[in-house]
Design brief:
- By secondary structure, the protein is α+β, with helices and mostly antiparallel strands.
- 42% of the residues lie in helices and 15% in strands.
- Helix 1 crosses helix 2.
- A hairpin with a 2-residue loop joins strand 2 and strand 3.
- The protein has a 3-stranded antiparallel sheet with strand order 1-3-2.
Length: 65
Amino acid sequence: MSSTRSRYVDINGVAEYLGVTVRHVRRLVAEERIPYIKWGLNLHFDLDEIDAWIDQHRRPARRSS
């Protein structure tokens, strides 16, 4: 077993982590644009996967001329 454990949060926790509303997270889930785990009726988010998802969507800053 790995010494580092994944950190799982609910939809309120991931919304707070991302600095967005729960409604926005629900939209991302509905559009399957964010990684999530569904356990029964509950949604859970692995913060390590969320960090990787953020890195995948990062855009470089534009250079000024």
